[in-house]
Specification:
112 residues; alpha+beta
Length: 112
């Protein structure tokens, strides 16, 4: 479990991203990115850009690390996806995000 300072940090980052238009929550199933509220629409790695990412590390346990990604899809849909880092990582989500990175999608911090 994260300590209170990390929870506040994660909440603050999510709030800021939400204000910047990253309002959807994503997950990866079947090798495609889906919005949690609408699983009918999905995106392949070539339709997704990682705009930014934020790491959150456990204070006493390195296994408590997670990464929050700000994602923009080709149709303009923006949102976030988080994944554990290391031992508890979700292999399917990690593989999808690695594919996106390998396609040359560079970070763009223009959403400030």
């Amino acid at each position: 479990m994260q300590d209170k300072e990390q929870e506040r940090s994660l909440v603050n980052v999510e709030r800021k991203l939400n204000q910047d238009g990253f309002t959807k929550d994503f997950n990866v199933t079947g090798g495609r990115l889906h919005t949690i509220d609408n699983t009918v629409k999905s995106y392949g790695p070539n339709e997704v850009t990682i705009v930014d990412f934020y790491r959150f590390e456990g204070e006493s346990n390195p296994d408590d690390m997670s990464i929050l990604y700000a994602i923009e899809c080709a149709d303009g849909t923006r949102g976030t996806i988080s994944t554990a880092y290391g031992t508890y990582a979700d292999a399917e989500t990690d593989e999808f995000l690695k594919t996106v990175e390998d396609l040359g999608k560079n970070l763009d911090k223009a959403h400030k």
